[in-house]
Amino acid sequence: MAGVKRLGLIGHPVGHSQSPRLFADRFERLGRHDVTYETFDLPDISNFPAWSQAHPDVVGLNVTVPHKSAVLPYLHGLGTEAEQIGAVNTLVRTPEGWVGHNTDAWGFRRSIQPFLKNTHERALVLGTGGSAAAIIWALRDVGIDVVAVSRSGRSSEGRLHAGAPVVGYDELNPALIQHHLLVVHCTPVGMSPSTEDMVTFPTSHLGAGHLVVDLVYSPPQTRLLREAQAQGAVVLNGQDMLRLQADKAWEIWVEAGV
Ligand SMILES: NC(=O)c1ccc[n+]([C@@H]2O[C@H](COP(=O)([O-])OP(=O)(O)OC[C@H]3O[C@@H](n4cnc5c(N)ncnc54)[C@H](OP(=O)(O)O)[C@@H]3O)[C@@H](O)[C@H]2O)c1
Fold it and tell me: Which of 219, 220, 149, 161 is nearest to 185 (CA)?
């Protein structure tokens, strides 16, 4: 259809994504009937250049698992944050090629701002994937010390993820947890439909001084958040971050002429 600006999401799988509904609501609210948002299942990122050529009218993309870092070699340029994080979730097509941005870090930071206290000087980040890299970067950027927690933490001493030291789940003793009053869960464990799954985090050591954030937004309350709340912790799910990272992506696309 002439004059329509196509946006979308690449990843694999993409069927479960909430982004098409989020953006459809946004376009409706803004009266932007000239913009569409679709999902594009792309199992193999090495097909991205061919896919891009075959879809010349797609002007902006979100990027999700497993391509947030893997897409980097196919981009023409990166925003400063994306370059430092080493992962993107938003792309803009330019005449020279695709330019990548990371709005996850921005969305995360904005989402936790109302809950952050000056006691939250140190954080435990659970997981060492692409979203953990963005969250670690965002936390260190505001001066919060981070320790990452990985299933394979103990296997290689001196290991870093996004500049943060990495420990194993078996090292999460009461003293360490009480020393880190911010806990951010950045793994897919506990997502629908496996809602009773939880990483092996000893929630009994959490208390009223803790802020526990789960990037998972479906279900709205994961088992981790339920157990943390029962210990008196303040809890936050990933819904606000999801909305805010989409706000920022939309802002980037509009600035690029969408
Ligand atoms: N709210 C939002 O806006 C937003 C934005 C981005 C992502 N997310 C959510 O954040 C979650 C993580 O995203 P991601 O892209 O970082 O995912 P990912 O790359 O697939 O996994 C992140 C890390 O989780 C750990 N992990 C994976 N499976 C595990 C298991 N069975 N048990 C324990 N740890 C496991 C792994 O770290 P180790 O091997 O080191 O243990 C892995 O590197 C997803 O649920 C995603 O939907 C939400």
Answer: 149
